## 1
Amino acid sequence: MTKTYQCLVGLHFAICTLAMIWPGALIANRIEPTVLGLPFLFFWYILWMLVLFAGMWVAFIVRHGGDRHE
Amino acid sequence: MSDSMIVVGITLAYLAMVLVVGLRARGQSNSSLEGYVAGGRHVGVMILFFILGAEIFSAFAFLGTPGWAYQRGAPAFYILAYLSLVPITIWVLGPRVARLGRERGYLTQGDMIADHYRSKPLGMLAGVIGVVALVPYLTIQIAGAGLLFQAATDGLVPFWLGGLLAFVVVAAYVFCSGLSGIGWTNLVQGIMMIFIAWFLGLAVSDRLYGGVGEMFAQIQQTAPEYLTMPGATDMSWGYFSTAVLVSAFGGAMWPHLFMKFYSADSGRTLRKVSVFYPLYAYLLVPLLLIGFAGILTFADAPLVRPDTVLLKMVLDVANFSPWVIGLMLSGALAAAMSTGANLAHTAAIVLVRDVLTPTVMKGASEKATVGATRWSVLGLSLAAYGLALLNPGSLVMILLTAYGLIVQLFPMVLGALFLPRLRRASVMLGALVGSVAYLLMDFVWSSPLGWHAGVWAILLNVLVVIACQAFMQPAARGPSLAGRHH
């Protein structure tokens, strides 16, 4: 459980990091389609900030959800 | 009443509010060193979230972020990327640092390094580098506050007085209330900044273009190069990516960030803070919008200093009422002051605990140490204010150089936390080689492939550490103290 958990969290971090720099951000390097009025590259960063948050939230619930005293 | 008077009035009301919050936060535990420095290691999720947010979110972020968007366009997303990646480091390092700190009484980075590697000079060195980096950083916040005051009040409050006003308030509550004062004021200032930044960002794009979508549509027609990489200034992906990595992961080596890990009431709290941390980075989005709005507004007469774009947009272009300008000034001051408070507090602790205690204050009582720390807060703030008045242009250079050196502590700190087999000689040699390489690339050669020099330096640092571990004879000594705990 612990080992799998750590691997998954690490994988999540690695994917989010690579999405925001080379090479991940290359695929988003365009203006169209605009989302919420924002150019696509701008929206891409906002999206991945949310993905990072969501993944960490799940990781937190899984590991620290019930216990209050670590 | 003239417009400038209204602006000054609103801002003074804001300063008074912050002062009251900061002074009232004085808890019972402030007479102990742990209480003054680390809030008695009892700081909870909410306050810690705003402290860690405020530290990263300085005057530089408030003015520099729109400046980047205005001048370069898409490369400004660098700031979004690195701020949202900072929590990864908090998640990984934070709980371990907090636990070691609690078990072994650490309060600074130097404490941990000196104890783990059994070398007082090494801890002192970390302390000296820390103070040398923190004081110029503080100076920049004070200078920022002075400039903001002067610009927003049309010179009614001059530079010297604006900087003085803002930092007398900061020094007063840090002196009296220590970390609890910083925590509560950072909470108030953080909420203000979020509110003001979003209001300004949406209002500016709405007034000038009739909405965010319309604004970007117009930029796409006349200056589409701003909206994708490499932007208007041809920033390469190599530099962009390495700068994000160095800022996001090296940033946690800043003493004022790192030392807050000690103040958490549990590792769980730090994890929870890091979960919500990317949301703090959303504060940058409206500031980026203001910068983008400036691209077309100033297309014919480009600004000499890009980081004045927010001020110019709000003061000259958007034609806001003085009430809004007063709020803008308060929000920007909040960014400068909330970071500045942390910097002054941390610099004083590092100076007293890592540099003075092992030398001139040997065997001082806890009470004397707390006293010395408080007075150091005043002394260092005053020194930084003096530097701000002199306004040496080399300040940013000192800051960047010191930051490059701080990042070189990374392998040393990782070793103390996770790799008990790393030896003192290896990490020292690694840090030395990394630092020298960084300085050479900064001042003498240019960095290979156009990457951020910090990445090359840290790679060299790690390579040297690995080589030393593999080829050098281990010194004849027992396992380190921290090693026994694992």
Note: Residues 40-64 of chain A form the longest helix (25 residues).
## 2
Amino acid sequence: MTRQYNFLLAGVGGQGTILASNVLAEVGLTAGYDVKKSEVHGMAQRGGSVNTHIRWDAERVYSPLIGLGEADILLVFELAEALRYAEYLKPGGVVVVNRHIIQPITVTSGGARYPSEADLRAVYSLLSERLYLIPGTATAQELGNARVANVVLLGALSTFLPVPEAIWLQVIELRVPARHLALNRQAFLRGRALIQ
Amino acid sequence: MRQLLSGNEAVARGAWEAGVQVASAYPGTPSTEILETFARYPNVYAEWAPNEKVAVDVAVGAAYAGRRALAAMKHVGVNVAADSIFYASMTGMEAGLVIVTADDPDMHSSQNEQDNRRYAKFARIPCLEPSDSQEAKDLVGVALNLSEQFDTPVFLRMTTRICHTSAPVELREQKQIVPHLDKFPRNPAKYVMVPAHARKRHPVIEERVQRLAEWADTFPYNRIEWGDTALGIVTCGVAYQYAREVFPHASILRLGMTYPLPPTMVREFAARVDRLIVIEELDPFVEEEIRLMGIACEGKSIFPRCGEFDPRIVRESAIQAGLLPESARVPVATLDKPEIPPRPPVLCPGCPHRAVFYLLNKRQVPVTGDIGCYTLGLLPPLSAVHTCGCMGAGIGQAHGADKAGIGERMAAVIGDSTFFHTGMPALANVAYNRSQVVTIILDNRTTGMTGHQPNPGTGYTLQQQETRVLDLEALVRALGIERVKTVPAYEVRAIDETLKEYLKAEGPSVLIVREECALLPGARQRWKALQVMAEQCNGCTLCFRIGCPAILKSDELDAKTQRPKATIDPLLCTGCEVCAQVCPRHAILFRAQVETR
């Protein structure tokens, strides 16, 4: 068992980062780790930039927050949002980014510019050799519901962790409504396949 | 059994396990989930009160009646409830009363970051501070016992990171408590705070603080973790976790109760360490208390007073103060990054507040704002909110500006829940003292920002009981406003015409703009994405000015204007049709047109 994992999940309010964080924390606990998960509610959730800190530790987690340079894995739900949190990554850490763009209001109604995918890719590849830009939302749309993009991303994330697939599926089963269970299972497995 | 619980969920669980029978609160980030969770436990009474003062009075009443009670609120809610907290400190109660204050260091969702430990000292009541979810749960029970033992309300001071961090918690069964009273107490000397009685009570509560300090020396949640005695750290709350992580070998005095401090324990700890520092977020509260004992210590000379901490902030501050070597620094990647477009929170697609702000901006009306989702009307391109202070402030501000003879017609915007909270007395003042204020009640049939809590206007309660719907229009008339009208929130022209009329009318008026929040389940069922007919659009940008996240600039430029045409994100659009009504070229299809296309 690796001693410790620090995860930073980032995205845009409304993308389902909270459900994904709940699953990730529960999986850690089920797999035998001490766990803390820290998120922000309220104003930021209204289409703003949101993030969750999740820590697993084989012994004990103290701080609920990860400091800059301390995240083992960045899981980012929106293409440009990884820029905002890049400095959290530990050297050699893993970066998984959903290739989905949500233009901020400062771009659509103001003068701000959304960086090109080529520019973003260039920066992200300097950040880490272990970079995965994946079509999370597109995959979810193929499955018929863009809202399961969060579970597709969890599937991708799961490939970097020493936790059996069965535990993930068991936790997902507890966390999603029964009528959406089959869809979420598929989303998780498709997400795994995006990396493997 | 162990379960992952947020600090808020843990407080609710702790209250249930410890036999709390009545809980009252007003929603406010980061405290909201306490009551939402507690309300789902069996055999308890839980309610949303219209404001925090009412919530505390309700909890005090239950505790006077001999039943354990809890009131919960965000830090600024304590300002609203302060009057009640102070008399409750004077009277004490017949059963345990815990008041949860959820402070918000870094102002994630607040207008200030006041440190409410000061209220504990101010009101002469003890203050407990958990460092994680397990302690949050346990300390509720401790607080109730302490409340009964010392005949005092007890503060449980949480912070955002404790409220919204989930961690494993050991669950227990509910404690069965048989109330010792079957009649309301008739004890005027204790419960009627006229001056003659109050003068006798004041020495009692001062003596209570002394006894609490003695008790604090024996309190197991105040504990010393001995390590290297070169450095001694006094800490509390979430700061304990950062201290433990950044200084794994130092000696630590962890305070589970930050008012009053344990005098003997602090003295003994200070005497045995070479350098004494205090690590606490926000105010130097513990630091000042230690100094008042005549003990030298450092705190805010090393660690920031503003904002919240994280391990990096604590580590960097410690390195600068020479408490840690330079080699302790964690390396951080330096990247040559393109400019990141800011992503502030925005009114959601389909938000029923959007049209009003678009029109207020178009008419260049000065607008005093209030607390809720609609505060976001301040941001460009809507740019239509010019003040936001605290709950219920906007109407009074508009009245004051009008009476000052500003020469512009003032409008005040306030949400339905905020109007019930503290807007009503301010509107009564507008009617009574006759100003020209146009009050706009943005009635989205819920308490939006905190996540859809019911309120006196929604027709159901926190525990899902059907109830009377408070009729806003009748209420406004009863407060003394004759000119009042309710207009559907997506009818841009109707709102504009009423606004135009009211801005010219003699005397006060109230415009109620009504439509349920687009995120409520019923509204979600009506979502239908609109479409832009690209051939009709000439990139005039008018629809961009309503600030809807679902309206995007397309890659296609208009041949003549060379400006990007509009396009609509089908994943975000709800079909509210505000953009379709604003578009001068009829390029955006209405719902009915989309259906027949």
Note: The CA atoms of residues 491 and 530 of chain B lie 16 Å apart.
